[in-house]
């Protein structure tokens, strides 16, 4: 069989509880890599948090992090940055609406003002045990902009103010300074302009020589739709939102019942 490029979202797709990959899914992905199929995780998480999940599968697994703003290829790490103007306007708009924004480099979280404790708790759900991520309160926009040469993406988390989040998203989207997406109803993901998971998928297809027809993408959330549309074999998890299931070519079992493993066992055997 010719090689297939296999790409999976993490939360709600590869990981069972945001932190662990099941043994059966690990086995299935390693069998696929043994057969010559490259494998990448693709996530909105910062690179360090994505890498630790990828390594649960194998040290051969590649990483697409920060919603496509950073990815691995042939031992190199490719970066796209949010930029100073996007950081400035995000800081201004979120401050005006009383929301908390977090900005990510490969291994550090930056923020300007101390967030509410429930927002900080929501962010830490994604940090696995045993991994210490740098967290730095920079205090001012000026100090934030000093880190612009390393900030790839950001997130606004608002579990208690849906209307403020909606208005913030509308205002930032209208400025057209960045790509604005979401992985859940209570957040807004900030990605460099013209970049999302799909751009990383296209770049990897070009670099590996594996076409869309032999690209398998698994996802469950709205921010997975772009990359799924770049795949000839798009697979919605059983727990995926309706919009993802609507555009997917296939649907498999949910992330808590080894949907990835079950699909690969059938597809790579019969394709």
Provide structural commentary.
This protein is an alpha/beta fold and 271 residues long. The protein folds into 2 domains: 5-79 and 196-270, HAD superfamily/HAD-like (Rossmann fold, 3-Layer(aba) Sandwich); 84-192, Hypothetical Protein, Haloacid Dehalogenase-like Hydrolase, Chain: A, domain 2. The protein contains 10 helices and 14 strands. It has helices at 23-34, 47-57, 84-96, 117-124, 141-145, 162-175, 197-208, 225-228, 242-247, 259-270, and strands at residues 5-8, 39-42, 62-65, 70-73, 76-79, 100-104, 108-111, 134-137, 153-157, 178-181, 187-192, 215-219, 233-236, 250-251. The strands form 2 sheets. It has an 8-stranded mixed beta sheet, with helices on both faces. It has a 6-stranded mixed beta sheet with strand order 8-7-6-9-11-10, with helices on both faces. Helix 4 links the parallel strand 7 (108-111) and strand 8. The longest helix has 14 residues, at 162-175.
Q: Which H/E pattern describes the elements?
A: EHEHEEEHEEHEHEHEEHEHEHEH
Helix/strand structural class? alpha/beta
The coarse overall form would be globular
CATH class of the largest domain: Alpha Beta
Q: What percentage of amino acids are in beta strands?
A: 15-25%
Number of domains: 2
Query: What's the architecture of the largest domain in CATH terms?
Result: 3-Layer(aba) Sandwich
Total of DSSP H or I helical runs spanning 4+ residues: 10
Biggest β-sheet strands, sense, barrel: 8 strands, mixed
What would you report as the Rg, rounded to the nearest angstrom? Answer: 18 Å
Name of the CATH homologous superfamily of the largest domain = HAD superfamily/HAD-like
